[in-house]
Each structure stands twice: as C-alpha cells, then as structure tokens.
Design goal:
This protein has 194 residues and is of the alpha+beta class. It has 3 helices and 7 strands; from the N terminus they run H-H-H-E-E-E-E-E-E-E. The protein has 2 domains: 51 residues, no CATH class; 136 residues. The protein has a 7-stranded antiparallel β-sheet, with no helix packed on it. The chain is extended.
C-alpha cells in the first residue's frame, strides 16, 4: 500500500469519525452548507488535501500547439487537433511529483446554418482525446507505472455570428484507462470574441 493511499484512508476515517459524533443527524443535516459541524468541515478539508486531485496543491506548465484544417473554402467543416505536453510540479503536502504527460485532443466540427441569413450556426461532430504519462511519478508517495486514458465522444453547440458568441457542450466516454480512473467527462464552453 502506498503512503498516499494510507494518508487518504486515514483522512476518510476522520470524516466517518466526525459523522459518528452526531448520531441523530441525517446526511442532509450534516452537509447543510449553513450548519455543517466545524469538525466535519475540517475532516473533509483534510480529505480533499489527501486525495490525488489534479488541481489541488498542484501546478503544471504546459506547452501546447493546435491546428485546424478546413476542407472547403466556406469553412463549413473543421478538422482540429491540439497537442499538449504537461510538466507537473511537486504537490503540496505530499512527497509526490506526478510524471509528465502528453495529450492529444481532436475533433471534427460541421457547421450548419439555422436561419437564412446564416447568423445562427449549429456545430456538431465527433471529438476525443488521448493522454499518456511519459515519465514516472517521483517521491515517496509515487505509484508505479505510467498511466494513460483514451476517450471518444461528441460535441454540439451554437454560434451567434453578429455577437461572435459560442456555446458548446461536449461529452466523452473514456476507455482503455491504465493506472488511473476511467469514466465519463462532460464540459460546457462559452466563448465571446472581442
């Protein structure tokens, strides 16, 4: 068992112990944002710090490049790809520096006009990503092996051309994960050009 896992298990037990201190309370009572017992809030804060969460106590430098190709002159379709190389730094409160990773995001977007003036466009298409850890984690809390995950899904959205405003939704199903969790991810992007 890794040192990090032991730390997470101890922190999780502190959450359970804090809950047990209030035997008559329901979960709704315990997790009321205005009345949460301070001991339970502190235990959850410690658990949050213990969990290997990619944005908690963690900095990463990224080098990224992207390209889009438009098969037709009117740009009604785009084939896009982005390559990102991530160089993580040591996590706070752990002797852990995650390994470097390489991620490829890809998508094909078809733009369909929803009105005669072509000022409102629907964007639809497949998309996905592939991510590989290319160097090992280091530190006493490091786990062995290099992780990877792959995902495929789709995207759809709307663009209102006069305002240069886009709202896009994407969903991905992850597969072939190794050394990490596998699941689904969803996102909403809102972009306004100035």
């Amino acid at each position: 068992m890794t040192a990090q896992r032991k730390t997470v298990e101890k922190a999780a037990q502190r959450v359970l112990d804090a809950r047990a201190a209030f035997p008559g309370a329901t979960l709704a009572d315990l997790y009321d944002p205005l009345a949460m017992p301070p001991a339970l809030a502190a235990a959850h804060a410690a658990l949050d710090r213990a969990v290997d969460n990619i944005g908690l106590g963690f900095w990463e430098q990224q080098i990224q490049g992207a390209v889009s190709w438009y098969p037709w002159a009117d740009k009604r379709m785009a084939v896009s790809g982005a390559l990102t190389y991530g160089i993580p730094q040591k996590k706070e409160d752990f002797d852990l520096t995650p390994g470097q990773n390489l991620t490829f995001n890809w998508g094909i977007s078809q733009y369909l006009p929803l009105n005669k003036t072509q000022t409102l466009l629907l964007e639809v298409g497949p998309a996905g990503y592939d991510s590989w850890q290319v160097t090992s984690d280091s530190g006493s809390a490091a786990s062995g092996g290099l992780d990877q995950v792959h995902a495929v899904g789709g995207q759809f959205g709307f663009t209102y051309v006069p305002w240069m405003l886009s709202v896009n939704f994407h969903g991905f199903y992850e597969y072939a994960a190794r050394g990490r969790f596998q699941g689904q991810s969803f996102g909403l992007n809102i972009a306004k050009m100035f």
